[in-house]
Write a structure and sequence with these properties.
The protein has two domains: 145 residues, Electron Transport, Fmn-binding Protein, Chain A (Pnp Oxidase, Chain A); 48 residues, Single Sheet (Rubrerythrin, domain 2), CATH 2.20.28. The strands form three sheets. The chain has a seven-stranded antiparallel β-sheet. Strand 10 and strand 11 form a beta hairpin. Helix content is 11%, strand content 35%. It has 223 residues and is mainly beta. One of its GO terms (molecular function) is iron ion binding. Its cofactor is Fe(3+). Keywords: Electron transport, Iron, Metal-binding, Transport. This is NADH-FMN oxidoreductase RutF, flavin reductase (DIM6/NTAB) family.
Length: 223
């Protein structure tokens, strides 16, 4: 069986949030899809070991914040590579709470959907939650982030229409040993203050991975 065929399935990239008592938490998820339109129902898949899973199990509520294609990797890193058990993911993130007390991310998002769980299915390592939509809104009309596009920028592959794909000398790339993000000198890390064309050796030691926040010393040469 060629399991690589599974990678041909297209996904989005979302921030799924929930609450437990007076606490809120959220995580990155690439699995959210509409099932029916009368009534409107949405399904999401959450790993059982994730902190957000615990919140949804208790509250039976969840929100889906839809990430914009232009969102920085740091937003995905904050909600995807850090645990709410250790930090408050919303401490430095602009957000609102719905009347039900659920978090909605306002930074670099296009809108949100709020759901009440009406059913769930145990699927090995994950739980598939089916929620009935109880609220939704659009903040702005832009293109949403896709899982494929995220991996493109995560691996420092700039669009072929950009000048960096013109002929140039081969430069060494470095990969983060924590999250797998690849630093490409041709692309740099503009959001982190590193201009395109900057060699890895010339990056300040205070610089951190834009996805997971790992230190420069946690990178190794990509072979």
């Amino acid at each position: 069986m060629n399991e690589k065929a599974l990678f041909l399935i297209n996904y989005g990239l979302y921030i799924v949030g929930s609450k437990k008592d007076n606490l809120i938490n959220a995580q990155i998820s690439n699995t959210a899809f509409q099932i029916t339109d009368n009534p409107n129902t949405i399904a999401i898949s959450i790993n059982k070991s994730n902190y957000t899973h615990e919140f949804i199990e208790i509250s039976k509520l969840f929100t889906i914040s839809i990430i914009a294609k232009t969102a920085p990797l740091s937003l995905i890193g904050n909600f995807g590579f850090k645990s709410g058990r250790n930090i408050d993911k919303f401490e430095k993130i602009s957000h609102l709470l719905t009347p039900n007390g659920l978090p909605v991310v306002l930074e670099h998002t296009l809108g949100y959907i709020e759901c009440r769980v009406i059913n769930s299915l145990d699927v090995f390592t994950h739980t598939l939650y089916i929620g009935q939509v109880i609220d939704a809104d659009i903040f702005k009309k832009e293109e949403p982030m896709t899982y494929a596009y995220y991996h493109e920028i995560k691996n420092a592959q700039a669009p072929k229409s950009t000048p960096i794909h013109e002929e140039s000398k081969i430069r060494k790339k470095y990969v983060c040993k924590v999250c797998g993000w690849v630093y490409d000198p041709e692309v740099g890390d503009p959001d982190g203050g590193i201009k395109p064309g900057t060699e890895f050796e010339d990056i300040p030691d205070t610089w951190v991975c834009p996805v997971c926040g790992a230190a420069k010393r946690d990178f190794e040469l990509l072979k």
